Amino acid sequence: MLLSDLITSKTRVKILTLFLDNPGEMFHVREVVRRVEEEINAVRRELIHLEKQSVLKREPRVNRVYYYMDKNYPHYFDLLAVHSKSKGLGSEIIQNRVKLGKIKFAMLSGKFTRGIRDNPEEVDLLVVGIVVVPELSLLIREEEARRKHEINYTVMTEEEFNFRKKRRDPFITSVIYGSRVMLIGDEEQLLA
Fold this sequence. Notes:
The protein has a 4-stranded mixed beta sheet with strand order 6-5-4-7. The mean pLDDT is 89. The protein contains 11 helices and 7 strands. Helix 3 (29-36) packs across helix 4 and helix 6 runs antiparallel to helix 8 (133-147). By secondary structure, it is an alpha+beta fold.
């Protein structure tokens, strides 16, 4: 599912994609116009609409108006999750799951989906199952080139995951109790 499947306005989809790709950034109106490659009047109309719906916030500064995602919007994290599954690495993993092997669980960390990179040692992606690692590595390298930074990922068998979970391994505990976006698998089974 893509945002364009839910939203009929092509300009609104492009604007939301820009802000969801860069959740912590502010953009002035002209920059939004350049990035989404749409007419300024259409962009202004959509920005005003998204502000009225509390999806975006507006901040005037000197002679420019900046917009940014409103993290208090009730569906903010839901939008990030849908976006993570419909674009980039999340989408590629879902679309190529057959080529990647027999995956039981695949999840992106909440910090990865929010664009937070405060600890480069944290895992961005965890994949559990029988995985064709060269295929997964190829997808990850493509996403690293797009994002221009390294993606930390861990692959383990279901047996190793369950063993480490029973032993309350600090790494597995941090993954299980941290925020995440499930790409493949049932979150209830993961936590059980």
